[in-house]
Amino acid sequence: MIQEFLHQAKRVLQVARKPDTEEYMQVAKITGLGMIIIGVIGFIVSLISSFLGGSV
Fold first, then answer.
1. Average confidence (pLDDT) over 20-42
2. What is the mean pLDDT of the chain?
3. Mean pLDDT score, 31-37
4. Distance of alpha carbon 22 from alpha carbon 30, whole angstroms
5. Three-state secondary-structure class, residue 27
6. Taking the domains of the chain in order of start, what are their residue ranges?
7. In the prediction, which pLDDT does 22 show?
């Protein structure tokens, strides 16, 4: 079981590569956009909750 895991980990490390600048920036933009969307959704839920008299 441990030997199988080590073999799979070795295969992943052989295939893995460092992302280039363009790929890194694309991932950073998508991640940032996702964080903003989640924050806006949380803010809207908080506003709705405060208007309905709930305590958050």
1. 97
2. 92
3. 98
4. 12
5. helix
6. 29-56
7. 96
Q: Which two tokens stand for residue 51?
A: 């208007």
Token reading at 54 = 């709930």
Q: Quick check: 38 and 46 in contact, CB under 8 A?
A: no
Q: Which residue type sits at 49? A: S
DSSP summary character for residue 52: T
Buried b (16+ CB within 10 A) or exposed e, 20-34: eeeeeeeeeeeeeee
The Cα 29–Cα 36 span in angstroms is 11
C-alpha 22: how far from chain center:
18
Q: What is the mean pLDDT of residues 23-52?
A: 96
Neighbours of 47 (CB within 10 A): 11
- Whole-model pTM: value is 0.64
